[in-house]
């Protein structure tokens, strides 16, 4: 098959605009215009798209689930390879490994595996594509205890920047496999399949949630950090600064999601949380039965479609006064917006030695701003709020997670020093001409150099 046999949607096509941004989750749409879009349905389409880009001296960009906040898939001078129509899941009963297409979402994989008594801890938002999610590391369900989702990748299939199909694992093409777990959009090839280790599904999931007025901020934030640290390995813990959608009053919500096999084990795991939560809650839902399907519905409500978004984030230093560092972020959300601020406990996973992979930045505390609004006229106000909050928070951070970052706006560290250097070398080895678009920094200039992996402020 030659490149001409794969359909390319060019800029003069009536379907171009839909192909360019129709699957981009963030409705703050970029003013970047790919040369053409290939809606791949097979590996050959992907190879053909790369060959076409080579012959036309263009770059390639990739889209799996379209959930990159900064729309990294939409790039100038590129052939955009959209994998939305390239779909498969194959589950091997013997190895318990699922081979999935990168466009597969967390929800679709969970639904597929549930009948087999298995699960995979994909993204909290049901429609995030596994492609972008896993390449960044993947802060999936119960990440603090189960580790990064990318640690469950047994192997990948790729098409290289030169258009060659390869298999990669710890033994074969091991440097690409190393990079695939933490390079994010800097991965110098196109993943065509992930081979994922699955885990036993949970028969008893329960959730304890408490909502407090802002007057209780300090007591609640101090408590949630302590309670998360003292929880057993079945519990994921978050605190969220929210705006109550009915009253528009800001609140602090804490939630403890428990993954267990029996009712009694779940009750026992949540007991210390239920008993120790501070008084003064305006809403309590104690040890409520739940399921991943139910949790996905909640995530869908918190992250509505057809809205404008800015995401920002930081790993806060382990020894910081987290309650005070996050006070502004948690308690001054932009009025009238649907924004929320998250603190996510990463302890004890943050204290263990990671496998040898590009992902290498860890701390006990993850914070992220999800600024959500509807109208373009609020863009500047929301952007200014994010910049203002992050200016203070970043000085108490060790770096950030690629998945909730925008390199056009803020520089910071994403990997350990050695891993960051190695990643840029692996990228140059596998893609010396910068065929794959890579990191979208200001002006989209980073190319084969990649990111500096430094804070923009002096330490
Ligand atoms: C509502 C929402 C909720 C989220 N929740 C979570 C969460 O719980 N945990 C978490 O860790 N993250 C979360 N994220 C962040 C999310 O994981 C990232 O935005 C991720 O990049 C999305 O992957 P995608 O495939 O959907 O995005 P895409 O926009 O399709 O891909 C992003 C980029 O990744 C690269 N890429 C994607 N697929 C491939 C491939 N096959 N080969 C090579 N490169 C590829 C490309 O550079 C691409 O531009 C969330 C995002 C949103 C919008």
Automatic annotation (TrEMBL):
Superkingdom of the organism of origin: Eukaryota
UniProt-listed InterPro entries: FAD-bd_PCMH (IPR016166), FAD-bd_PCMH-like_sf (IPR036318), FAD-bd_PCMH_sub1 (IPR016167), FAD-bd_PCMH_sub2 (IPR016169), FAD-linked_Oxidoreductase (IPR050416), Oxid_FAD_bind_N (IPR006094), Oxy_OxRdtase_FAD_BS (IPR006093)
One Pfam family recorded for the sequence: FAD_binding_4
Residue intervals of the FAD-binding PCMH-type domain: 30-201
Keywords noted in UniProt: FAD, Flavoprotein, Oxidoreductase
Keyword Transit peptide: no
Keyword Transcription: no
A GO molecular function held by the record: FAD binding
Cofactor(s) needed by this chain: FAD
Gene3D superfamilies registered for this protein in UniProt: 3.30.465.10, 3.40.462.20, Uridine Diphospho-n-acetylenolpyruvylglucosamine Reductase, domain 2 (3.30.43.10)
Family: Belongs to the oxygen-dependent FAD-linked oxidoreductase family.
Protein known as: FAD binding domain protein
